[in-house]
Amino acid sequence: MVVDLAIPETISRVLSGVTDTHTSPNARLPSGLVHPVHPELFRLPYQSEMWSIWQSARADDAYPPDRCIDPTLLPPAALPFIVLYEIGERPDVIKIRLEGSEIVRILGRSRRGGIVGQQSGTQAHLGRLTWAAANGKPYWVKTAIEHDRYHYRTYTVLVLPYGQNGRVTRLVGVNAFDNLPAE
């Protein structure tokens, strides 16, 4: 299935010069990251469903407890496109705990157990994930695949923080890829 992830003109205006007023009035966000998240950016229904599930689970908290990550409650269409990250003692030490089957197929290998930032071309990705872990906030971004055989392809990802005891312990990335060939 080919999905066009082009951003409509009205949404493009949302993306230009976005700053995060929750951490610092003049702070620039890393590498095109969009916060606060604008649900109208979601191009596939499973990203919208994941956003709704996350919003319901967090209630009035900044983010839901990590025990709320339950694959049986997640949209089945999202599961092949999800990456589960574990946050170490420092927010910039991020381990890939689980990858959906389509992520593995697209990249041509599993990165499960790897540390983000140790692979070639993942520094911008690490910067965005570190921001989410340190700030306890979700984000959305449209970017190019930074490595491997589809480096010229684009994708969007919605990243949702989960945690316990006042710190983010997990991030869930909900990916949607643009124009990938079926294999």
Task: Describe what is shown at a glance.
By secondary structure, the chain is α+β, with helices and mostly antiparallel strands. Helix content is 22%, strand content 22%.
State the main characteristics:
183 residues, alpha+beta, 5-stranded antiparallel sheet, globular, PAS domain-containing protein
Would you give an account of this structure?
This is PAS domain-containing protein. It comes from Thalassobaculum fulvum. The protein has 183 residues and is an alpha+beta fold. Helices cover 22% and strands 22% of the residues. The chain contains four helices and five strands, in the order ααββααβββ. It has a five-stranded antiparallel β-sheet with strand order 2-1-5-4-3, with helices on both faces. The protein is globular.
